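Continuing the batch. This is chain 6 of the set; chains 1 through 5 are on the previous pages. Same settings as before, nothing changed between runs. Recording input and output for traceability.
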Amino acid sequence: MKVSGRLSAILFEALLVLCTAFCAMAEEKRIPTQDDIPYGAAGGQVLTMDYYAPKGAGPHPIAIIIHGGGYVGGTSKNGSEAYCADFLAPAGYAVFSINYRLAPKFPYPDMVQDVERAVRYIRHNAKRWDADPSKIALVGGSAGGFLSNMVGLLNVPGNPSAMDPVDRESAKVQAVVTLFAQSSFATVPLNANTHALLDLLIQAKGEEAALKEASPITYVSGNAPPFLQILGDKDEYIPYSEATNLDAALKKEGVSSQIIRIPNGMHATGGWYKIQGVPDWEAQMTLWLNAKLGHSGPVGEGIRKREPAKGTAQ
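Output for chain 6:
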């Protein structure tokens, strides 16, 4: 069928608009290379994760994203945390975003053990993704930030006598990045979600002992990996002091620790790009990981464009 020149131009323009819209969406949200990879099973539940393939030549450092959701919700595709895959995969990181068991059905420490299992599984199978098992970072937000803090500080070794070869692998990591994360349950009033996570432990051991046991700051030692904490100073749920307290405890033990403060930043990363003068925390985070893991991947692709909220000064 013959198409007139005018109609051809219209069709071309329409396709161009669709392509532009699609490309913008692709830049806005990276799609996993593979969904729902099983990394273990516990409590009658299959534990799964999503994989985002890295750019460039391997072996690649590994970033394990741990979603938030107040300990009782959320998935591996939570935008606030999964967004980190948008700029870490182009920088050459093999990125895994994991699911874990949720409270109240699975209270503390079940989800901590799930994250440890993910570290062990990815380390054991690193060659499958042309990844480096000696360069693993945790990247968690909110409840996932608590889990990153906890697993990073517990530094649990492998069990050499385990029947499952995965469990013989170490759950130790080489760097920890946390976004708006709790470091102590003793310094922030408990709410319904933290009660769902901790009530069984509180009933068994008493509140003071339980809160101490479940608080990451309890496990700070000189053997901890380097830490980077990123937090808004207007966070509705996590006081900024949660970051500064952990930072001080780590530095006291001689551990490398840094904080990126998001002025006027609230909970979750979703609105940060609209804040006037927001720091380039994604680039800073990637450069920090590059330095700590001995990586030299490019920085910048996939970072959300800054769009100050309407009415703010340009």
